[in-house]
Amino acid sequence: MPLLTAENIVKEFSVPKLDAWFGQARLRAVDGVSLSLEPGHTLGIVGESGSGKSTLARCLVALEEPSQGRVLFDGQDLSKLGSRKLRAERAKFQMVFQDPLASLNPRHRVWQIVSEPLVIHKGLKKEAAMEEAGALMSQVGLEPGMLLRYPHEFSGGQRQRIMIARAIATRPRLLVADEPVSSLDITVQAQILDLLLKLKNELGMAMVFISHDLRVVERLSDSLAVMKDGKIVEQGPAASIYRAPVHAYTQTLLKAALPLPKALRGLSSKGVV
Q1: pTM for the whole thing?
Q2: How far apart are CA 71 and CA 62, in angstroms?
Q3: I need a labelling partner for 133 at 20 to 30 A (CA). Which of 99, 124, 170, 260 fits?
Q4: φ/ψ of residue 51, rounded to 5
Q5: Strand 42-46 relative to strand 206-211: parallel, antiparallel, unpaired?
Q6: CA angle 103, 108, 109 (to 5 degrees)
Q7: CB 205 within 8 A of CB 269
Q8: Distance between CA atoms of 145 and 221, rounded to whole angstroms?
Q9: Edge-to-edge strands of the sheet including 24-37?
């Protein structure tokens, strides 16, 4: 049974009409998307800015409620769960966002940020939570002593490591990574992607990896979904799509893609090769 299934997901937002002083129009950000993900596999979702990737990601982890359709996690319809059950389920799926600085509370020290899921979902007391937070920092390549700092005291790559530490604190079965390296330089991108793959394999997680960069997604993904204007225009095994893309949009993206930087060429869905 798939770990994650999206069935005909539609997400609409109300926006001001451009041709009138008053009134609202409906913007369809995601338009009838269906996909599935097996345990332990990586699904790459790729498309240009405005294609609906991030909105779909938020629907997959129940941060947005679909206007139509449903998301099943481990066979459960997330929209049918009450707030208490959904809160408990959130320990099993976590998200890493594009901008870690905007995602980390600037008023909290790192130990508070990383240990919060341990307190909420595991019921740990402060001392035990801090100890486990230190172990998580080590797991993502940071010194436990850094727990006493604030987010602004870190580089972009370090802040993304903190976000990842927080995301894996509950040992989730699914990690959704929304453009997690797009704001980082190439060398740091390679380090973060290597870390994500290492943790995925160590923890046995499934992963949804979202990016506009086809070449990075190629190296990470078992399967691929290409989005345009809120729709999936092509999906299937990643190797097949890259070898022989069918849809004209996918072909255009591949032709426009820059060669993979040397720092990223050793990556694969199984880890660094």
Answers
A1: 0.89
A2: 8
A3: 99
A4: -80, -10
A5: parallel
A6: 110
A7: no
A8: 34
A9: 24-37, 4-16, 68-73, 76-77
User: Who contacts 31 (Cβ-Cβ below 8 Å, separation ≥6)?
Assistant: 10, 52, 229, 230, 231
Give the whole-angstrom CA distance, residue 185 versus residue 48: 19
Closest CA to 39 of 2, 7, 71, 91: 2
Sheet holding 231-237, edge to edge: 93-96, 174-178, 206-211, 42-46, 223-228, 231-237
Contacts of 51 (CB under 8 A, 6+ apart): 227, 228, 229, 230
- How high is the mean pLDDT in each 10-residue block of the chain (273 residues)? 95 78 80 96 93 95 95 95 91 92 92 94 90 96 95 94 96 95 84 92 96 81 95 94 92 77 59 46
Task: Please tell me the distance from the alpha carbon of residue 206 to that of residue 195, in angstroms, as a whole number.
Answer: 14
Asked if residues 14 and 26 have their Cβ atoms less than 8 Å apart, the reply is: yes
